[in-house]
Amino acid sequence: MRIFRVSRQAGSALWSQKGKAFLMLLGIAVGIMLLTAVVGLSQGVEKRISEITALFGPRAIVIQAGGGRFGGPGDRSASSSTLKLEDAMAIRNRLSERAVVAAAFVTDDIPIKSGDTNAQTDVMAADPNFPQAYDWYVASGDPLDEDDERAMSRVCVLGATIARNFFPEQDPVGQRIMINRVWFTVKGVLTSRGTNAMGFDMDDRLWIPLSTGMRRVFHQDYIRNIRLNVRSADDVAAVTDEATNLLRDRHHIRTPEEDDFRLRTPDFIAQRVRSMARTTELVGAALATVALIVGGVVLMNILLLSLSERIPEIGLKRALGASQHDIFAEFLAESIIVSLMGMALGVLLGLVPVFLIPKLFPLMPMAVTWRTFAYAALFSSFVGGIFGVQPARRAARLDPVEALR
Amino acid sequence: MIELSGIEKTYHTGGVDTPVLHGINISIEEGEFVALMGPSGTGKSTLMNILGLLDRPTAGVYKLAGQDLTKLDDNKLSTIRNKRVGFVFQLFHLLPRVSVLQNVLLPFLYTDPYPTDARDRAQSLLKGVGLQDRMYFKPNALSGGQQQRVAIARALVNEPALILADEPTGNLDSVASQEILEIFDRIHAQGRTIVMVTHEAEIAAHASRVITLKDGCIASDEKRGS
Ligand SMILES: Nc1ncnc2c1ncn2[C@@H]1O[C@H](COP(=O)(O)OP(=O)(O)OP(=O)(O)O)[C@@H](O)[C@H]1O
Ligand SMILES: [Mg+2]
């Protein structure tokens, strides 16, 4: 087709002035490099969010004791006794139709021991609803049940890592393990959840009945968190509001006062993760835009400057039958081809940080998807198209008689 | 084949009107070899540009093969230029960055549909002008006479009805000029219509008709028996 023949002319014209073509594509390459890195970051953030959401539970709400900010210092000590078992009961009474509610007392670095094996681990004292509330069930043995809760039984359910470390040879079910100097019998082993997005092993923990934990092991009258697993995803926001209002009522908190509890939903976490990357993304996007515009202007000016050397060629082609449209297309194609080569270089350069940064900083997520390439192609051809119009129009409008003189 | 009636051309540059052609009436039959002569600045090149559809007359009617060209747009004129007109310039005008063969193929860039035998045609024309060994050379590796022969092959490759040559030997020595003129004689013998601008009577002697311009008007128009 004619357009391909004309584009090949553009390619051969560029090839004959490689140095100049390289200068033309440089600015665009820098812009596309930045764009690739920014898109890589935002894709990485979205990927990280979906991982976190999947782990957290897409329909989960977690209420934690104590005010303070997520990700900030928080306050595990001072006001961390603000959540009571009665709060969990009240929420369960109000919302049992719409959500599974489980209360838990969580402690970390508790010494555990069995035979010659010692470790320090997280102990979760949770009510019998926890498997449904966490969507996390036993792989072998039995779950903790109402009887254990009522009787304050000294029984536990192990995370997969603990089961493997403490009982590599035997079946853990029925074995005994000492938790904080109290002997427990292993009732079951949970399915494996692997590592979370922050690199934390979710299976390195064990579970005991809430009543046992509060009264027999840790001697506390408060709980650490309440987890709700909402039955319908559409209901998460409404349940969040109701639980918040209920707790504020129960804790006598009036409007201007801050909550003495923190309420987390997947949406909330997604927003927090996004907002951590937002500044970097905005700065990167702004730099990429500036670089692309500067690159486009440089491209346009080099094309305009080199037009004078091309005048005889343009005159000749017009004499041989090129219309104004053909000349326009040929020069626009030059601009777009240069931009696409700039894109190729820019994507290559941009993929370096996309692959390198997560290796150096594991918390900085980066990902490559089809969007990376789609955006690069879109923006570079856009820049080439826009900034190529002026030189192409000038070339097309040359008077062929003048051009041939 | 060519009918010019009342052709006028006035250049407007910098607010000044320069009248160049004053009511030119010429009719050229198919197969004629016309030499266009006249003093410098009388408008020969201007007339050639109008004949080649590179420029439009200010007034008058130009008919090529019965078709009135005065009202056609740039796209249509370009198509006609591509298919029916072949140019040979004084300064050869070859594209330096591509080979001799690619130069001959240049007109086909703008020919739809692209002829399947384009390459064969270009090669046989280059053979015809004795350049079969130089097809893959760059133009600047060729002598002036050879370059002009490439330009003639290029002018002929789309089998145009009309060949326009503005002082095609103006930049060549007498030996090379002689070779070029022999080629033109051959093209003429094949029945193509040629209009050639020249200042030299010996060159004009190859033509079947000599038109002399003076001050933008036709001063004489002589046909010769060949
Ligand atoms: N673009 C232009 N603007 C103004 N005047 C022009 C322009 N082009 C040509 N002329 C004038 O028109 C006249 C005819 O020019 P043209 O090139 O047709 O002459 P010519 O017969 O080909 O001369 P030569 O034998 O020297 O090539 C000249 O006086 C020239 O100065
Ligand atoms: Mg002239």
Structure, explained:
The complex is a heterodimer of chains A (405) and B (226). With 405 residues, chain A is of the alpha+beta class. Chain A folds into 2 domains: 183 residues, no CATH class; 168 residues, no CATH class. Helix content of chain A is 56%, strand content 17%. In chain A, strands 2-3-8-5-7-6 form a 6-stranded mixed barrel. In chain A, a hairpin with a 2-residue loop joins strand 2 and strand 3. In chain A, helix 11 runs antiparallel to helix 12. Chain A is elongated, with a radius of gyration of 32 Å. Chain A starts with a helix and ends with a helix. In chain A, 40% of the residues are buried. Chain B is an alpha/beta fold and 226 residues long. Chain B has a single domain, classed as 3-Layer(aba) Sandwich (Rossmann fold), CATH 3.40.50.300. Helices cover 31% and strands 29% of the residues of chain B. Chain B has 7 helices and 10 strands. In chain B, the strands form 2 sheets. In chain B, strands 6-7-8-3-9-10 form a 6-stranded mixed sheet, with helices on both faces. A 4-stranded antiparallel sheet of chain B has the order 2-1-4-5, with helices on one face. In chain B, strand 4 and strand 5 form a beta hairpin. Chain B is globular and about 45 Å long. In chain B, 42% of the residues are buried. Classes of the chains: A alpha+beta (405), B alpha/beta (226). Chains A and B meet through helix 1, helix 10, helix 11 and helix 13 of A and helix 2 of B. Bound molecules: adenosine-5'-triphosphate (ATP) and magnesium ion.
